[in-house]
Design a protein that fits this description.
This protein is α/β, with parallel strands linked by helices. It has one domain: Rossmann fold, CATH 3.40.50.300. The longest helix is centred in the first third of the chain and has 25 residues. It is globular, with a radius of gyration of 17 Å.
Length: 203
């Protein structure tokens, strides 16, 4: 089984992935952020590095989904291949950070990948307001994220909402503002109760 955690930058995907993997005994699959060779350059000059960054992510996510297909474990994934396309690439293209030529090259590559890739068996979407995202980004203190503009985050949030509203797969939506699933067990239990009900029909 493949479970995806979706949400904007700072929504808490990595934390929730870690907690759910431990709680259920699932195998976590994390997004390549720490080792992405383009990420710091991207936030310094988004237009210059957008295509290289997005192609790198696409390549890494293809490796991830192929690993997931081969695994017999329940895999919980921090951000999916679908978000890379429908949120980040679409946003960069709309903002002029990707040329039409680069966008078409990316989409041709993605469409070939989708011939061998399927949607997650369950998607969990963390919905967050901009103030919550900003507070979380500041709290975790990654230097390269401190230059992210509110306008950029807002654009991503709009695309997340549009994507989720049209999503046809199995979906749990979590309003994450005000939740502290790491520090408050009762908040984490709200999420596991929803998952238990969806996957196992326990409630």
């Amino acid at each position: 089984m493949h479970i995806g955690i979706a949400g904007n930058i700072g929504a808490g995907k990595t934390t929730l992935t870690t907690l759910l993997a431990h709680h259920y005994g699932w195998t976590p699959k994390f997004e390549s952020v720490t080792y992405n060779p383009y990420l710091e350059d991207y936030y310094k000059d988004i237009k210059r590095w957008s295509f290289a960054l997005e192609m790198y992510f696409l390549q890494q996510r293809l490796h991830d989904v192929m690993d997931i297909r081969r695994s017999k474990d329940v895999i919980i994934q921090d951000r999916t291949l679908l978000e890379g396309v429908h949120i980040f690439v679409a946003n960069n293209y709309a903002q002029g950070n990707l040329s039409e030529r680069d966008y078409n090259t990316y989409m041709d590559t993605f469409n070939v990948m989708m011939e061998v890739v399927k949607e997650p068996d369950l998607m969990i979407y963390l919905r967050c307001s901009i103030p919550h995202l900003v507070a979380q980004i500041q709290k975790r203190g990654r230097d390269y994220e401190q230059t992210i503009s509110i306008e950029y985050l807002a654009g991503l949030n709009e695309r997340y909402e549009k994507w989720i509203s049209a999503y046809k797969g199995r979906l749990i939506e979590i309003d994450a503002d005000g939740l502290d699933f790491l520090g408050r067990p009762e908040d984490f239990a709200l999420i596991t109760d929803r998952i238990d009900a969806e996957l196992y029909g326990l409630f």
